[in-house]
Amino acid sequence: MLRNKKAVLFDLDGTLIDSMWMWKQIDIDYLGRHNRELPDTLQKEIEGMSFTETANYFKERFHIRDSVDAIKAEWLSMARSKYQNETPLKEGVLSFLGYLKEHRIRTGIATSNSIELVQTILESHQLTAAFDAVYTCCEVAKGKPEPDIYLLVADKLDAAPEECLVFEDVPMGLIAGNSAGMETCAVWDRYSIDQDEEKRILADYYIHTYHDVLNGTYEVLKP
């Protein structure tokens, strides 16, 4: 999986950290504050959007009077404590990051989340120094499934697309990695278990935990 790879790029939520459960609850609580109910289809509708794109979508979709900046600030306030205290790393992350550092494979984060919350989780788990480049979809023209964010991070890591491996937990992210010309690995997450079949179709590899990479027990999905 890592043969001839110069850089490994990660999504954040659901990929490096177990946090997708939290965002559904925040959506429920936030919409409740505005006397709105959470539609069953919402998570699929916003999958891959940047933090700013999602705020714009909420404002239009639910006719929220607050500004986009105010919506984002409210979400940050609701999420910050959970990121600091209730959001664990996915199993095997620390061992895998240690392996990459030892073998001089560069690492980057390419996330749809806000930079403030990315910094919060990295500081909470003392992982700030573990990544060579950290960028969000708010810093590119279009969020996932467009390849912009992965191409940006690869450029910052001085790695060609074919030298990169992407880890993602949802189809939109895998499509973004594929569109960037990179190999992709789907990561199991309980939040996206109903999308496993689609993830397996899109990805080159599949893991349940990062121990699978180090133990060689990952699934090869494409010849």
What number is the mean pLDDT? 95
Kindly report the spatial arrangement of strands forming the biggest sheet.
3-2-1-4-5-6-7
Main beta-sheet annotation: 7 strands, mixed
> Under the CATH scheme, which class of the largest domain?
Alpha Beta
Structural class: alpha/beta
Rounded radius of gyration (Å): 17 Å
Distance between the termini: 12 Å
Secondary structure topology:
Layout: E1 7-10, H1 20-33, H2 42-46, H3 51-61, H4 68-85, H5 93-102, E2 106-111, H6 115-124, E3 133-136, H7 148-156, E4 164-168, H8 171-179, E5 183-187, H9 196-202, E6 205-207, H10 211-215, E7 219-220
Parallel strand pairs: 1-2, 1-4, 2-3, 4-5, 5-6
Antiparallel strand pairs: 6-7
Helix pairs in contact: 1-4, 3-4, 4-6
Considering the chains and any ligands shown, give keywords for the structure:
2 domains, Rossmann fold, seven-stranded mixed β-sheet, 223 residues, 10 helices, alpha/beta
Describe what this molecule looks like in 3D.
The mean pLDDT is 95. The chain has ten helices and seven strands. The chain has two domains: 7-17 and 89-220, HAD superfamily/HAD-like (Rossmann fold); 20-85. It has helices at 20-33, 42-46, 51-61, 68-85, 93-102, 115-124, 148-156, 171-179, 196-202, 211-215; strands at residues 7-10, 106-111, 133-136, 164-168, 183-187, 205-207, 219-220. With 223 residues, the chain is of the alpha/beta class. The chain has a seven-stranded mixed β-sheet, sandwiched between helices. α1 packs across α4 (68-85) and α4 (68-85) packs parallel to α6. The protein is 44% helix and 13% strand. The termini are close together.
